[in-house]
């Protein structure tokens, strides 16, 4: 690819946040048909993701242990986790997997602990973000480059913060 196409590909990726669109535009600009990108299996194509399976397992476990009241509490916990992180996802600051993971953990711990878990997750995530920024600024950890295909610039894995917040909330409310 020449410099012009790479520049256009980077611009498209920045706007669309996706390699597929950037490659399709680059292929179009080069005059060749776009290549299909291998697709990961997920629930939109009939195969459930790990987060989806965890949510279903939590709902089944709560129902099996506590009957319909357990199912109700699990659904309420999932709703708390989903509703709390969904606005963050909609702003683009968090991935859908993190939101589904919080919903699954909310189904496991129930609505009251899930509410504490969300607050403590946000605190843990803030600490993680500040530590990552500090490490990138003064340490040896390099920030991802926007020039590399498929790189999500400025992203940090949030699952650790979700687990930390949920574990802390479980210990506090136990």
Describe the protein's architecture and organization.
It is a single chain. The protein is mostly helical and 174 residues long. It is 71% helix and 0% strand. It has six helices and no strands. The protein has helices spanning 3-16, 19-30, 50-90, 96-109, 111-138, 159-173. Helix 3 (50-90) packs across helix 5. The chain starts with a helix and ends with a helix. The relative contact order is 0.10.
How would the blueprint of this fold be written?
Layout: H1 3-16, H2 19-30, H3 50-90, H4 96-109, H5 111-138, H6 159-173
Percent of sequence in beta strands: under 5%
- The total count of helices amounts to 6
Principal-axis shape equals flat
Structural class: mainly alpha
* Total count of strands: 0
| CA-atom Rg in angstroms | 20 Å
Concise account of the structure shown:
It contains six helices and no strands. With 174 residues, the chain is mostly helical.
